[in-house]
Amino acid sequence: MSVCIPVYNGERFLAETIRSVLDQTYRDFELVVLDNASTDATGRIARSFGDPRVRVETNPSTIAQPENWRAAVRLCRAPLIKLLCADDLLHPRCLEYQVGPMVADPGLAVVAARRHMVDERSRVLAPRRGLAGLTGVRSSVEVARRVVRSGANPIGEPGGVLFRREHYDAVGGWHPERRHAMDLDLWMRLLQCGEFLGLPETLAAFRVVQQSLSVDNEAGVYEHQKAIMAELAASRHLQIRRVDSTVGHVLAPTGRFRRRVLFRMSKHATRRDARLPSAGRPGG
């Protein structure tokens, strides 16, 4: 299988992210790091591991983030794919738990797991998030109804999800026009190709970095998720009920509020660390 990490100026967290991949109990994978013409030490860090499973590629010039994600998947050589953002983490047994079901059941299109939300020092801010009502094998109809009811993305970010390259190609890959919700958009299109498996284990960590939240980005996430919900609701095949859409409209602002709270928690933790003497800081 292939794990790909598209990265731009990711020197701060990249080494920890790569180590979390190389420390997997499942060993038969390639790790593709695509450096988007970074201007910091990203390339040097990526090449420092000396592990034959790591392949580092570099774009000749910086391209838009959605295009870099698409390029990273194109570089992958294996039939099973996981894209991992350059500041997120995998649990040591993530690949073991996700690859097994995919190999055993060719009818699965997506295998997802819960994730922790962590701060800039990898401390857990919110544990075991995601997949409410979505554990076990689920049809596209069941998943779509749960997504619309949530008004958000209950499946989660790319690090917690494994998918098949053939399905990714069949549905057109990441859609750049949905750049603020490319993950949810792809998950729902992949389910045109097979079923969904939600694992109850927490196998990834999404890092809440304060620089990631801007007014424009937050508004973009909200608007792109709303557009995805509208498309799902309009699909006859997915059989979205009026009650699903109604509940989703009510809950969508709650999801937005939760995101703001998490970023505030991370910001406060970072400020608190800055006030501590270095000897008192974790790892200091």
From TrEMBL:
A Pfam family of this chain: Glycos_transf_2
Signal sequence interval, chain numbering: none
GO molecular function: glycosyltransferase activity
Origin superkingdom: Bacteria
Keywords for the protein's UniProt record, in alphabetical order: Glycosyltransferase, Transferase
Its EC number(s): 2.4.-.-
Domain Glycosyltransferase 2-like: 2-169
The name this protein goes by in its record: Glycosyltransferase
Species of provenance: Pseudonocardia charpentierae
